[in-house]
Design brief:
The protein has 121 residues and is mainly α. The chain has 4 helices and 4 strands, in the order E-E-H-E-H-E-H-H. It has a single domain, classed as UDP-galactose 4-epimerase, domain 1 (Alpha-Beta Complex), CATH 3.90.25.10.
Length: 121
């Protein structure tokens, strides 16, 4: 387990991001590549999740209390971020399919297993 390694949160942790499971992102890239058409598509869930909520999910998946260290905010950091992925849905038929907790669980298990060279999506 990743004992003794606590994350550092820059700012107060209420800033949000749109977290998408890496397997879903890979599927989006493959779908775009196979589409045969040029384009630009946002890949994400459209859901804002705070850094504090992500840390809580990581702790739940890891089965332990995660106590982050806090540092000053980084200059220019966005406070809120979520993408509009409707174009990927309408033009490519792609949507993120993996709930955040399940995606964190898969990545955590992959890391715990020694981060093998191949990942099953």
């Amino acid at each position: 387990m990743l004992e003794g390694r606590e994350p550092t949160i820059y700012g107060d942790g209420t800033q949000t991001r749109d977290y998408v499971y890496v397997g879903d992102a890979v599927r989006a890239f493959l779908t775009a590549g196979d589409s045969g058409r040029p384009g630009t598509w946002n890949i994400g869930t459209g859901v804002e999740v705070s850094v504090l909520d992500l840390v809580a999910i990581i702790g739940m998946v890891a089965g332990r209390d995660v106590r982050p260290a806090f540092a000053g905010p980084r200059p220019g950091e966005l406070q809120r971020s979520a993408v509009a992925a409707e174009r990927a849905a309408s033009e490519l038929g792609w949507r993120a399919a993996t709930p955040l907790t399940e995606g964190v669980r898969r990545v955590y298990q992959w890391i715990e297993s020694g981060a093998p060279d191949r990942v099953r999506c």
